[in-house]
Amino acid sequence: MKTKELVYAALFAALIAVLGLIPPIPLGFIPVPITAQTLGVMLAGCFLGRKTGGLSLVLFIILVAIGLPVLTGGHGGLVALVGPSAGYIFSWPISAFLIGWASEKIWLQVKTWKLVVINLIFGVIVVYLIGAPVMALITNTSIWAALIGSIAFVPGDIIKAVIAAIITMQLRAISPIEEKVQA
Fold it and tell me: What single-letter DSSP state applies at residue 24?
């Protein structure tokens, strides 16, 4: 892995930590709040690509595990990785990798709407399909109830998917994916 890729991974881990400074929106009926950090997950995947995007989220989880308060609300430590949000957090590297993989596949014909669809499939649906069952297991509720509760995240996640796609298209010329395609 090149130094430049490591720098990008660290930069996006830091970006996701900064997005954690935006106060979470607690829902009351589900123990997982709405956060801005999934925007960073989508951006990491569609801007950095599969390898560097996935690595940035692995690095982020390591920062959480060692106790840095990088999760929304200033949380961090191993307790955050075994709580109701654990499945969502652990889905992030998988999500970023899949978003990056799909983005790389369509890069030569990339359009904003294509990135929105990729973000919705891999940055929303995949995260819900991993996060909701883990939350159900930890909170001793049904998977169906957890998935239904996740519906509350949909409007914000659609907005985040669009924002990530627009930002990526605006910065396309400096994306590491662009460098790989041009090489």
Answer: P
Rounded distance between C-alpha atoms, residue 182 and residue 108, angstroms: 10
For residues 42 and 168, give the distance between their C-alpha atoms in angstroms, rounded to a whole number.
10
* Token pair for 143: 């998977």
- DSSP for 45-69, please give it: IIII-HHHHHHHHHHHHHHHHTT--
Q: pLDDT tens digits for 29-47?
A: 788 888 999 999 999 999 9
Q: Cα separation of 102 and 138, whole Å?
A: 31
On whether the CB atoms of residues 41 and 120 are closer than 8 A, the answer is no
Model confidence pTM above 0.85: yes
What would the pLDDT profile of 95-121 be if each residue is shown by its tens digit?
999 999 999 999 999 999 999 999 999
Q: Residue 93: what residue type?
A: P
State the CATH class of domain 3-177.
mainly alpha
pLDDT at 1: 76
Tokens of 22: 């935006």
Parse the chain into domains and list their residue ranges.
3-177
β-sheet bridge partners, residue 34: 25
